[in-house]
Amino acid sequence: MEFKDIQNIWQQQSGETTLPDFEPAKQNLRQLRKKQQISKIILAITGIVLIAFFFYISAYKYSGPLLGMSLLIGVVLVRVYIEIKSQQQLKKISVLLSLEDFKAQLINYYQKRKNLAFRTIPILLIIYNIGILIMMYYFYQYLSRGFFYYIVISYLVSFAVLFYFIRKQVLNELSILKNLQES
Amino acid sequence: MSKQFTKIYKEHYEKVHRLCLGYVNGDQALAKDLSQDVFIKVWEHLDEFQHKSSIGTWIYRITVNVCLLFIRKNKKKKKVDFVEIKEEVQEEHDNQNRMQQMYACIHKLKETERIIILLVLEGLPQKEIAEITGHSHQNIRVMVYRIKEKLTKCVSNGI
């Protein structure tokens, strides 16, 4: 078989494709944009409420729990910020570029994600665990043993689950990067 | 813009869908999603079209980029066992099986090779492919020759 034959077969594919209605896609896009706006508003309100609550309970008067809570909340906020920024960076890559330029930008994006995964995220996880250890010290002092162990076990389980998902995501992104670099 | 878009959508949907179908190993549902993603981008960027190339080339440029972007969303691509297909082809030589064999062979290529050969199969001139991919015309000529050989060998002999 020659390439011309392959091309003929390809081009002879019948026009069975029915043209789907594009209106639902447009509506989905509008809804998605609305949801993105709502998410941003919710995140902003959550941040404001957290700060207000912090002052309301005068948490700044107790330096130990304050440090622990600040580390925990700080890490979560930084993580959310990094993810939002990262999503925005990906969306900024223009589909109007040539394939090679587009691919170069995608590779650059995934290189940054790789750096995040192997440098920033481990540091954040260490800080988060330091925060947890500080809080555990206070939980141990002020809470009943039963409740304390409940918190410890819940934390260990949730951390293991979180670690599993982070690992899965990182491996997926590394494989995408490898794929892009090889192509 | 709406009327202009509708016209573009009607005129170009089939070839976009066919290219997407080739990219996702003949998976109709994925190809439909991918084609929809392409036309959402077309719809979003239509006012940025500067008439420097034909609208067809411009749409193909969006299509190949959306295809490349698609790998991040869908790592679990449908894997077709080539040996099984080969056996099927030996049993019944109908067009559908031949198409499936072609999809499997295209799928074995690297991402960029896959995109380039799909454009070649669609009958686009090499100059236009160079414009879409950002490679030099000379480069494309060499690449196309190499990928054509690979694909022909695969479809003919199953390797």
From TrEMBL, chain A:
The transmembrane residues are 41-59, 65-82, 116-140, 146-166
Domain of life assignment: Bacteria
Listed A to Z, the keywords are: Membrane, Transmembrane, Transmembrane helix
Q: What is this protein called?
A: Uncharacterized protein
Organism, per UniProt?
Answer: Kordia algicida OT-1
From TrEMBL, chain B:
InterPro entries membership: RNA_pol_sigma-70-like, RNA_pol_sigma-70_dom, RNA_pol_sigma70_r2, RNA_pol_sigma70_r4_t2, RNA_pol_sigma_r2, RNA_pol_sigma_r3/r4-like, WH-like_DNA-bd_sf
Q: What are the entry keywords? A: DNA-binding, Sigma factor, Transcription, Transcription regulation
Q: Does the keyword Transcription regulation apply?
A: yes
Gene Ontology MF annotations:
DNA binding; sigma factor activity
Among Gene3D superfamilies, the record links this protein to:
1.10.1740.10, Winged helix-like DNA-binding domain superfamily/Winged helix DNA-binding domain (1.10.10.10)
The Gene Ontology biological process annotation of the record reads:
DNA-templated transcription initiation
| All copies of domain RNA polymerase sigma-70 region, residue ranges | 8-76
Looking at the record, the residues that make up the RNA polymerase sigma factor 70 region 4 type domain are 100-151
Protein family membership: Belongs to the sigma-70 factor family. ECF subfamily.
- State the name under which the record lists this protein: Putative RNA polymerase sigma factor
Species of the source: Kordia algicida OT-1
